[in-house]
Amino acid sequence: MPAELTPAELYRQMLRIRRFEETVLAAFPRGWFYGTTHTGIGQEANAVGVLGLRKPGEVVVSNHRCHGHYLAYGGSMTALAAELMGRATGVCGGRGGSQHLIDGDFYASGVLGGTLPLAVGMALAERRRRQLVIVFLGDGALGEGAVYESLNLAALWSLPVYFIVENNRYAQTTPIHLHLAGEIPARFEAFGIPVEECDTTDVSEVGDLAEAGLGRLRRGSGPQALVLHTYRFSPHSRGDDLRDPQEIERFRQRDPLLVQGARLRPGDRRSIEAEVEQQVREAFEAALAAPEADPASLTPALENGA
Amino acid sequence: MTTVVASLNQALRRSLASSLEVMVLGEDVLDPYGGAFKVTQGLSSAYPQRVLTTPVSEAGIVGLGVGMALRGLRPVVEIMFGDFLMLAGDALVNHAAKFRWVSNDRARVPLVVRTPMGGRRGYGPTHSQSLEKHLMGAAGLRTVAASALLDPGPMLEAAILSDDDPTLFVEHKLLYAQEIGASLDGGDYLVESAGERYPSLTVRLAGAPAPRLTVASYGYTAGLALEAIRRLAYEHEVFAELVAFTQLIPLRLEPLAQSVRQTRALLTLEEGSGVLGWGSEVVSAMLEELGPVFPARRVSARPLPIPASLPLEQAVLPQVDDLMRAALSLNEQDRGGPTRHSNG
Hints:
The complex is a heterodimer. Chain A is an alpha/beta fold. Helix content of chain A is 43%, strand content 12%. Chain A has a seven-stranded mixed beta sheet, sandwiched between helices. By secondary structure, chain B is an alpha/beta fold.
């Protein structure tokens, strides 16, 4: 791991995501938001472990559960909060909402599987610049046919794309044993895509694997895959959790923040917590104070609309 | 004279030559085969790095095109038969049509998806359809249709090189072998063009009385409409004017509204089925623009799958005679005579 990614820094980045999403879920009943949201509380080690290593110009493609990826990418927490609130200052001015974040080299969209061909197409473009694409997908997306067309094309043309599977063991409310046959790594092996697999919530472990994978891609390899077995403590969206609370509690024992927090001196940890608390509070205060998106700002869907 | 297929091929060639960002992807596009309808013939020999043959993966390759376009390329994706576009519906509707607008104009999707549509070749229910209407309701996606009345090459080139939004470029299969402009040659017609990148043509018989009927159409059926207009004049002394569209959506009201203001009668002709079709949209838009001051009819395919047998296919797809019947019926109604319904 690069020197700047100290244990404290990794903890700080994960905590920013955690506290942002906890605040979102807590504030929903207060009417701050319109629509819905998907949080990834418990999955922070994946976003930070992989994207903490991202270099400028490397492209990120994410899905409906994208807040953590966006913050780990370096996106503005205030703009993200504002986007969720439909404010003019949001990442997309309120046009995208929680699951459609488009900003610089970051692209998230809400239809599962459909983002995979996009990521492979981006890799075809980025290869010319010697850049690469990192795309996140969940176990649920593995049910979509477009995923396998994408793996085939990425392998066939040896494109610089890193497939990161976050297997949180549920597609919305459906447990993996009811929606997935076979093994996840075998899906990549079938196309000749090198794949690594890890059941961990340790951000350093994720980071070590991602560092190796990204290193191969930066040296000009074809597609790579990383399967991370993870767990989300939060519901799929808001009020739709039917899982056994004991199961959730069992996974909470290996909460990535507990794992990483144990590596810090208590005083250091507390000062990071205070700092993050303030950041999150300021982000939401700024978003709340921002103007609502204005219908007068709606432009035609095509440049030459007529 | 140039055929439609040659002009489209040259447009692709010019686009590849003028910008390194242009890439062409599709199934079986490599030489010596050069694509199922030969539009890409010779391209892979001239530009082997930028003309890629793909697996049979329509969802994949259109999605790839969206990703390429988002990252600065100007991809052209060929879908071998328009029917297969349904496989790429997610890429077109949920991705291509969304990114620019949802991103508040931070992203651009300069993607062209070209595809042959249409029947009259006996290919049956899944290789003969005109399905563009199913995509015309997706805001953020432009639909353009080639015809043989006006050279489609420069339009394709503009869509590839100049248009920063996604374009569905529809090519009827029977157009490929047609000579561009042949039916308008010889001075029999007065032709006016309106619009720049994807113009509409207004066509009427030279030296004829003022038209009392407007026919709106596009693509291959615009040629059928021209034939019907000639026969209506010579066989029935009914004079009509054609407005042939190139850009189908967004729908431009002019020059059609101008024509209907004069003729006060409107027929639409399309090869797809009529329910919720392009003609329905055109008639509705004209009603809103002009008020209920004109009678209208829609001529289209019958609401059936397209059968393979020649007589069955002919019975399902709209023919010149169907348009003439509708025109004569409309003409009678317009003059207060008995109303008779065409099969359109």
